[in-house]
What we know:
This protein is about 30% helix and about 15% strand. The protein is of the alpha+beta class. It has a single domain (about 20-160), classed as NADH Oxidase (3-Layer(aba) Sandwich), CATH 3.40.109.10. The protein has a 4-stranded antiparallel β-sheet with strand order 1-2-4-3, with helices on both faces. It is globular and about 50 Å long.
Amino acid sequence: MTQRIADHPIHEIFRRRWSPRSMSGEALTHEELFTLFEAARWAPSSGNSQPWRFVYALAGTPDFRRFFDLLASGNQPWCAKAGALVVVASRQQRADGMPLRTHSFDTGAAWVSLALQGTIMGLVVHGMEGFDYARAAEVIALPAGHTVEAMIAMGKPGRREHLPEPYGSREEPSGREPVTRWAFAGRFGTP
Protein backbone atom coordinates (compact mmCIF):
# COMPACT_ATOMS: atom_id res chain seq x y z
CA MET A 1 0.00 0.00 0.00
CA THR A 2 1.23 3.49 -0.88
CA GLN A 3 2.35 5.51 2.12
CA ARG A 4 0.71 8.93 2.23
CA ILE A 5 3.17 11.08 4.12
CA ALA A 6 2.67 14.83 4.33
CA ASP A 7 5.71 17.07 3.86
CA HIS A 8 4.15 19.77 6.04
CA PRO A 9 1.86 19.57 9.09
CA ILE A 10 -1.79 19.07 8.09
CA HIS A 11 -4.87 17.53 9.67
CA GLU A 12 -4.94 13.77 9.11
CA ILE A 13 -8.33 13.92 7.34
CA PHE A 14 -6.60 15.23 4.21
CA ARG A 15 -4.32 12.20 3.99
CA ARG A 16 -7.14 9.79 4.85
CA ARG A 17 -9.35 11.04 2.01
CA TRP A 18 -8.90 9.11 -1.19
CA SER A 19 -11.10 7.79 -4.01
CA PRO A 20 -11.72 4.06 -3.59
CA ARG A 21 -13.90 2.19 -6.06
CA SER A 22 -15.01 -0.82 -4.04
CA MET A 23 -18.59 -0.42 -2.79
CA SER A 24 -21.06 -2.88 -1.29
CA GLY A 25 -24.08 -2.09 -3.49
CA GLU A 26 -26.17 -1.04 -0.50
CA ALA A 27 -28.12 2.19 -1.06
CA LEU A 28 -27.19 5.15 1.07
CA THR A 29 -29.86 6.22 3.52
CA HIS A 30 -31.50 9.62 3.19
CA GLU A 31 -29.81 10.62 6.44
CA GLU A 32 -26.35 9.68 5.13
CA LEU A 33 -26.94 11.38 1.80
CA PHE A 34 -28.21 14.60 3.33
CA THR A 35 -25.37 14.68 5.87
CA LEU A 36 -22.99 14.72 2.88
CA PHE A 37 -25.02 17.48 1.22
CA GLU A 38 -25.10 19.45 4.49
CA ALA A 39 -21.28 19.45 4.52
CA ALA A 40 -21.31 20.78 0.94
CA ARG A 41 -23.79 23.47 1.97
CA TRP A 42 -21.23 25.15 4.21
CA ALA A 43 -18.49 25.45 1.59
CA PRO A 44 -17.16 28.95 0.88
CA SER A 45 -18.47 30.69 -2.23
CA SER A 46 -18.12 34.06 -3.89
CA GLY A 47 -20.55 36.48 -2.28
CA ASN A 48 -22.32 33.51 -0.66
CA SER A 49 -23.64 32.61 -4.13
CA GLN A 50 -23.67 28.84 -3.47
CA PRO A 51 -23.78 27.95 -7.19
CA TRP A 52 -23.44 24.18 -6.72
CA ARG A 53 -26.23 21.81 -7.62
CA PHE A 54 -26.24 18.08 -6.79
CA VAL A 55 -28.77 15.86 -8.58
CA TYR A 56 -28.77 12.36 -7.14
CA ALA A 57 -30.05 8.87 -7.84
CA LEU A 58 -30.10 6.23 -5.11
CA ALA A 59 -29.27 2.60 -5.86
CA GLY A 60 -32.36 0.54 -6.60
CA THR A 61 -34.33 3.43 -8.14
CA PRO A 62 -35.20 3.94 -11.83
CA ASP A 63 -33.12 7.14 -11.82
CA PHE A 64 -30.03 5.15 -10.82
CA ARG A 65 -30.13 3.22 -14.11
CA ARG A 66 -30.48 6.47 -16.09
CA PHE A 67 -27.46 7.95 -14.30
CA PHE A 68 -25.49 4.71 -14.63
CA ASP A 69 -26.04 4.75 -18.40
CA LEU A 70 -24.28 8.15 -18.55
CA LEU A 71 -21.00 6.64 -17.33
CA ALA A 72 -18.06 5.85 -19.59
CA SER A 73 -17.48 2.14 -20.08
CA GLY A 74 -14.39 2.32 -17.86
CA ASN A 75 -16.44 3.56 -14.89
CA GLN A 76 -19.45 1.27 -15.21
CA PRO A 77 -17.90 -1.93 -13.81
CA TRP A 78 -17.02 -0.43 -10.44
CA CYS A 79 -19.98 2.02 -10.25
CA ALA A 80 -22.45 -0.86 -10.55
CA LYS A 81 -22.32 -1.26 -6.76
CA ALA A 82 -22.54 2.44 -5.86
CA GLY A 83 -25.11 3.38 -3.25
CA ALA A 84 -25.84 6.63 -5.10
CA LEU A 85 -24.74 8.43 -8.23
CA VAL A 86 -24.67 12.21 -8.31
CA VAL A 87 -24.43 14.67 -11.19
CA VAL A 88 -22.72 17.85 -10.03
CA ALA A 89 -23.61 21.08 -11.82
CA SER A 90 -23.13 24.78 -11.20
CA ARG A 91 -25.07 27.96 -11.81
CA GLN A 92 -23.10 30.32 -14.07
CA GLN A 93 -24.81 33.62 -13.18
CA ARG A 94 -25.65 35.56 -10.07
CA ALA A 95 -29.27 36.27 -9.23
CA ASP A 96 -28.93 39.70 -10.91
CA GLY A 97 -27.80 38.07 -14.19
CA MET A 98 -24.13 39.02 -13.85
CA PRO A 99 -21.62 36.26 -14.64
CA LEU A 100 -20.51 34.22 -11.67
CA ARG A 101 -16.89 33.73 -12.68
CA THR A 102 -16.07 31.44 -9.75
CA HIS A 103 -18.99 29.01 -10.19
CA SER A 104 -16.71 26.04 -10.95
CA PHE A 105 -14.23 27.01 -8.23
CA ASP A 106 -17.00 27.31 -5.63
CA THR A 107 -18.61 24.05 -6.74
CA GLY A 108 -15.23 22.37 -6.31
CA ALA A 109 -15.13 23.68 -2.74
CA ALA A 110 -18.56 22.13 -2.11
CA TRP A 111 -17.38 18.85 -3.63
CA VAL A 112 -14.32 18.63 -1.37
CA SER A 113 -16.47 19.42 1.68
CA LEU A 114 -18.75 16.53 0.72
CA ALA A 115 -15.74 14.25 0.07
CA LEU A 116 -14.17 15.03 3.45
CA GLN A 117 -17.49 14.43 5.24
CA GLY A 118 -17.74 11.10 3.44
CA THR A 119 -14.27 10.18 4.69
CA ILE A 120 -15.27 11.07 8.25
CA MET A 121 -18.37 8.85 7.87
CA GLY A 122 -16.35 5.93 6.50
CA LEU A 123 -18.07 6.07 3.10
CA VAL A 124 -16.68 5.76 -0.41
CA VAL A 125 -16.91 9.07 -2.27
CA HIS A 126 -15.33 9.04 -5.73
CA GLY A 127 -15.55 11.98 -8.13
CA MET A 128 -15.15 11.39 -11.87
CA GLU A 129 -15.14 13.00 -15.28
CA GLY A 130 -15.72 9.83 -17.32
CA PHE A 131 -19.34 10.24 -18.42
CA ASP A 132 -21.42 11.89 -21.14
CA TYR A 133 -21.78 15.54 -20.09
CA ALA A 134 -24.33 16.52 -22.77
CA ARG A 135 -26.59 13.56 -21.99
CA ALA A 136 -26.24 14.23 -18.26
CA ALA A 137 -27.60 17.74 -18.77
CA GLU A 138 -30.60 16.24 -20.59
CA VAL A 139 -31.19 13.45 -18.07
CA ILE A 140 -31.28 15.85 -15.11
CA ALA A 141 -33.23 18.52 -17.06
CA LEU A 142 -30.48 21.08 -16.41
CA PRO A 143 -31.83 24.61 -16.81
CA ALA A 144 -30.16 27.22 -19.01
CA GLY A 145 -27.37 29.13 -17.31
CA HIS A 146 -25.98 26.00 -15.62
CA THR A 147 -23.16 23.65 -16.55
CA VAL A 148 -22.41 20.03 -15.70
CA GLU A 149 -19.16 19.79 -13.72
CA ALA A 150 -18.64 16.14 -12.68
CA MET A 151 -20.26 12.98 -11.37
CA ILE A 152 -19.78 11.30 -8.01
CA ALA A 153 -20.19 7.64 -7.06
CA MET A 154 -20.88 7.18 -3.35
CA GLY A 155 -21.54 4.17 -1.21
CA LYS A 156 -20.71 1.97 1.68
CA PRO A 157 -17.29 0.32 1.43
CA GLY A 158 -17.04 -3.01 -0.30
CA ARG A 159 -14.27 -5.55 -0.58
CA ARG A 160 -11.30 -4.90 -2.84
CA GLU A 161 -11.28 -8.51 -4.02
CA HIS A 162 -14.84 -8.10 -5.36
CA LEU A 163 -13.72 -5.47 -7.86
CA PRO A 164 -13.12 -6.69 -11.40
CA GLU A 165 -9.63 -6.19 -12.80
CA PRO A 166 -7.87 -3.92 -13.42
CA TYR A 167 -9.67 -2.01 -10.64
CA GLY A 168 -8.95 -4.41 -7.78
CA SER A 169 -5.19 -4.28 -8.20
CA ARG A 170 -5.29 -0.46 -8.26
CA GLU A 171 -7.49 -0.12 -5.17
CA GLU A 172 -5.16 1.82 -2.87
CA PRO A 173 -4.55 5.46 -2.02
CA SER A 174 -2.27 7.32 -4.41
CA GLY A 175 0.58 9.63 -3.53
CA ARG A 176 0.81 13.29 -4.45
CA GLU A 177 3.34 15.55 -6.12
CA PRO A 178 5.29 17.78 -3.72
CA VAL A 179 3.97 21.30 -3.12
CA THR A 180 6.99 22.79 -4.88
CA ARG A 181 5.75 21.36 -8.21
CA TRP A 182 2.65 23.59 -8.25
CA ALA A 183 2.99 26.40 -5.67
CA PHE A 184 5.00 29.35 -6.97
CA ALA A 185 6.32 32.57 -5.43
CA GLY A 186 5.45 35.68 -7.43
CA ARG A 187 5.59 34.14 -10.90
CA PHE A 188 4.59 30.86 -12.48
CA GLY A 189 7.36 28.28 -12.25
CA THR A 190 9.28 29.99 -9.44
CA PRO A 191 9.40 27.81 -6.31
